[in-house]
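User: I'm writing a short report section on ligand binding and want a predicted complex to refer to. Could you take this sequence and 5-hydroxymethyl-3,4-dihydroxypiperidine and write out the structure as tokens? A short remark afterwards would be nice.
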Amino acid sequence: MARENLRFPPGFLWGAATAAYQIEGAAREDGRTPSIWDTFSHTPGKVLGGDTGDVAVDHYHRWRDDVRLMADLGLTSYRFSVSWPRVQPTGRGPAVQRGLDFYRGLVDELLAHGIRPMVTLYHWDLPQELEDAFPSGSAAGGGWPERDTAYRFAEYAGIVGEALGDRVEMWSTLNEPWCSAFLGYGSGVHAPGRTDPVAALRAAHHLNLAHGLGAQALREQLPARARIGVSLNPSAVRPLTASAADMDARRRIDALANRVFTGPMLRGTYDDDLVADTARLTDWSFVQDDDLRITRHPLDFLGINYYSPAVVSAATEEDAAGPRKDGHGASEHSPWPGADEHVSFHRAPGELTAMDWPVDPTGLTDLLLEYTAQAPGVPLYVTENGAAYDDKPGEDGQVHDPDRVRYLHSHIAAVHHAILAGADVRGYFLWSLLDNFEWAYGYSKRFGAVHVDYETQARTPKSSAHWYARLAASGELPREYVAD
Ligand code: IFM
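Assistant: Sure. The structure tokens for the complex follow:
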């Protein structure tokens, strides 16, 4: 007898996610100014193949077709980000109406097709002017290490809240602030490409502050029904062995990957061990009175982005000499201030995706249960999950991506598992709707459920998109993976 399918709760959202710089293009249109990612991608050697987001997948001009595509797939939600330099080009002062109109049009079109928008305010495209400005005169420079950037973010959040608040119910302040802080200012593999461990820690704090101030500013603009959250990429970090030394390595990375954000956001604190581990670098005096009350703004939901687990041990000499294996790109600088010399990263078991990230869905179940415990009563969304593979159209013109279907099947089953174990998960957003600009990897890595021919911009739903459409229509996942 066939075993029953896995049923998701009624009203569970089946979405897909994107980010402005990765898809919009139109980098110099309608008053948009450069973001740190424009500057970074135009700096030789920073992005594979010299790729930039100048054109990306031209979503700025093709948004109506893209919404139709989502509707054809039966998506019930779409998570996108607003480009800060498109709506407030200098990062301060009045908004550009044309920029806001673009997002108003997009939201109206989504709603007309019954697709619920989730807006992310910041997905890494800081206006370059703010990176260049440091009104406090701090030696750590401008951008996120500068406190004023958090206040600028709150102003921007208020502007977008006022413009879209009558039609958007779900709001996420930041996407993956870990990447903004530690890849942007620590290892330098992301924009703005700085490699200063203290700047990275300051950036982390100012992102936490920006989240709190931004949530306050949104709350002032939005109707009571609106829900405000944040999307983190917590690390499902595991010790290589149960030895005390490996457990301590796990603790260090948990502090720097996870608790540096969840401490201030959920509990209003930076944990003592995090402060002690980084004491050689900073006394954390950039944390001012009242900051940790602001960062703890009540969350209406928590977004979890998950791709792969991390495995760590106490530092081994062999690993110290070899290439980094933390999956965050090649750099001689560490994204782990104060921890690097104590910790070695190991590849988790499992098949690898085209990013060389191991496939292990148990990490997603673990995280959903972990944050159910840490944030009781706060609904969870999987705001990103997916995989890159080397997808190409076959002779039949179709794009067959069975590896991605298998990845999605196992991870969505992992979400179901977490729900059965008590996690209040309200939706799943596949990363990504479309193939797009994968940051330092340029267009070489394809995460989309929809294939994009970068020459012609033609969109072709891959077999995973058709598979996902069936799931969205039925709300039921076959218990076993069945290849098409
Ligand atoms: O493409 C990114 C996205 O912008 C943020 N989360 C991870 C994805 C895959 O690397």
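A remark for your report: The pocket of 5-hydroxymethyl-3,4-dihydroxypiperidine is lined by residues 19, 22, 176, 305, 384, 431, 438, 447 (CB under 6 Å). The chain is about 40% helix and 15% strand.
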